[in-house]
Write a structure and sequence with these properties.
Blueprint: H1 7-27, E1 34-36, E2 42-44, H2 45-61, E3 66-69, E4 73-75, E5 81-89, H3 91-95, E6 102-109, E7 112-120, E8 125-130, E9 134-137, E10 140-141, E11 154-157, H4 166-177, E12 180-183, H5 188-194, E13 200-203, H6 208-220, E14 224-226, E15 241-244, H7 247-258
Parallel strand pairs: 3-5, 11-12, 11-13
Antiparallel strand pairs: 1-2, 3-4, 5-6, 6-7, 7-8, 8-9, 9-10, 13-15, 14-15
Helix pairs in contact: 1-2, 4-7, 5-6
Length: 259
């Protein structure tokens, strides 16, 4: 992994993020057709328009880079650099006019994330994490909070529906060990964790486009992120994600999830 993400890649990611902001804001709280994908999740014209425009920008700038997108699939996944795009994470929130959906943009070098953006277009909040550059929220440096013990924190997740079978039992153990549990934040929670407002996010059944863009935001802010076995997240991960504000909290949560 390069020690420092090239500045030109950060500039391109910001260009992609601006495109998503403009398009999402144009459709937000308006009426438009909604389709249901094969996995029973909704998709809108905004999702597809954002990703199509972002892919076109990448193709015209770095045609040798790979792309893994939520709506239009994968190309050149063997390339050294691969962009990861989720045009609207939290489509259900977007459909209901709730401004916690985000545009996610990631860049991996040989499978390891080196750049990530979490952008909330309506609130104008943009988290950026890039290898060698640290993490920022709207250009101001951010750090995770010196977190309290597991028994004192709230576990955050998008929905209880993402926990099935053994993962449901494991998540129940984690919430029992924590003080509270709260649902409904989508990937907005990872930005809040990086800013020091939250301490622990645990999720399952996540796609590559959901988790790869948030990795470097968390890491550069001083947090820890892995799967539920403590392994680094990559393209072949199992879809479980654990993000923590500190090493000690992360290890405590992993121990509960493993038992």
């Amino acid at each position: 992994m390069p020690e420092r993400c090239p500045a030109e890649f950060i500039d391109l990611a910001l260009r992609l993020s601006e495109e998503a902001r403009y398009t999402a804001a144009r459709y937000f709280r308006t009426r438009f057709p909604v389709e249901t994908k094969s996995d029973e999740t909704p998709v809108t014209i905004a999702d597809r328009e954002i990703e199509a425009k972002q892919r076109a920008i990448i193709e015209s700038t770095y045609s040798d880079h790979g792309i893994s997108g939520e709506e239009y699939g994968d190309v050149r996944m063997g390339a050294d650099y691969v962009w990861i795009l989720d045009p609207i994470d939290g489509t259900k929130a977007f459909l209901n006019g709730i401004p916690i959906f985000t545009n996610l943009i990631g860049l991996a070098y040989r499978g390891d994330p080196v750049l990530g953006i979490i952008d909330q277009p309506i609130l104008g909040e943009r988290w950026i994490g890039a290898a060698g550059h640290g993490a920022t929220l709207n250009n101001a440096p951010i750090k995770t909070d010196l977190s309290p013990s597991l028994a004192e924190v709230t576990v955050h997740a998008t929905t209880p529906e993402m926990f099935i079978g053994a993962n449901a039992a494991r998540f129940d153990r984690l919430t029992s060990a924590a003080k509270y549990c709260r649902y409904g934040t989508d990937c907005y929670a990872y930005g809040l964790l990086a800013s020091g407002h939250l301490h622990l996010v645990a999720e399952a059944d996540m796609k590559v486009q959901d988790y790869m863009p948030v990795v470097e935001v968390i890491r550069q802010a001083g947090g820890i992120i892995s799967d539920w076995s403590g392994q680094p997240l990559g393209f072949d991960s199992d879809g479980t994600v654990l993000a923590s504000a500190s090493n000690g909290l992360h290890n405590a949560a992993l121990e509960v999830l493993a038992n």
